[in-house]
């Protein structure tokens, strides 16, 4: 089993892929380690959110994804 990471919007461009499969469990530090430096730099910014199991985390550094979970990396949303 593994954790699926989804890169959305501009984060997909930085990662160079739509998704990645990594061994679980996965915590915040593990996430930063596997997504690459450019994506990790973006994730550290307050305006970028992380969702796990379909729910946006109030505190993304509290991430704990288990085998079979999906983690979505959500760039800031603009619009009007």
The string of secondary-structure elements, in order, is EHEEHHEEEE
Largest sheet: 5 strands, mixed
Count of β-strands? 7
Distance between the termini: 40 Å
Low-confidence stretches: none
What's the level 1 CATH class? Alpha Beta
Structural class: alpha+beta
What proportion of the residues is helical, as a percent range?
25-40%
Number of helices: 3
CATH topology: Ubiquitin-like (UB roll)
Pfam families: ThiS
Protein name: MoaD/ThiS family protein
Organism: Qipengyuania gaetbuli
Architecture overview:
The chain has helices spanning 10-15, 28-34, 37-43, and strands at residues 3-7, 19-22, 26-27, 49-52, 55-56, 64-65, 70-74. By secondary structure, the protein is of the alpha+beta class. The chain has one domain: Beta-grasp domain (Ubiquitin-like (UB roll)), CATH 3.10.20.30. The strands form 2 sheets. It has a 5-stranded mixed sheet. It has a two-stranded antiparallel sheet with strand order 3-6. A hairpin with a 2-residue loop joins strand 4 (49-52) and strand 5 (55-56). It starts with a strand and ends in a 6-residue tail after the last strand. It comes from Qipengyuania gaetbuli. This is MoaD/ThiS family protein. Pfam families: ThiS (PF02597).
Task: Please supply descriptive tags for the structure shown above.
3 helices; alpha+beta; 80 residues; MoaD/ThiS family protein; Mopterin_synth/thiamin_S_b; ThiS/MoaD-like
Topology, element by element:
Elements: E1 3-7, H1 10-15, E2 19-22, E3 26-27, H2 28-34, H3 37-43, E4 49-52, E5 55-56, E6 64-65, E7 70-74
Parallel strand pairs: 1-7
Antiparallel strand pairs: 1-2, 3-6, 4-5, 4-7
């Amino acid at each position: 089993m593994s954790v699926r990471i989804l890169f959305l919007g501009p984060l997909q461009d930085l990662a160079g892929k739509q998704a990645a499969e990594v061994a679980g469990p996965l915590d915040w530090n593990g996430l930063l380690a596997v997504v690459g430096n450019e994506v990790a730099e973006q994730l550290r910014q307050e305006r970028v959110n992380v969702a796990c199991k379909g729910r946006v985390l109030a505190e993304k550094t509290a991430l704990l994804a288990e085998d079979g979970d999906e983690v979505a990396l959500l760039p800031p949303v603009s619009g009007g």
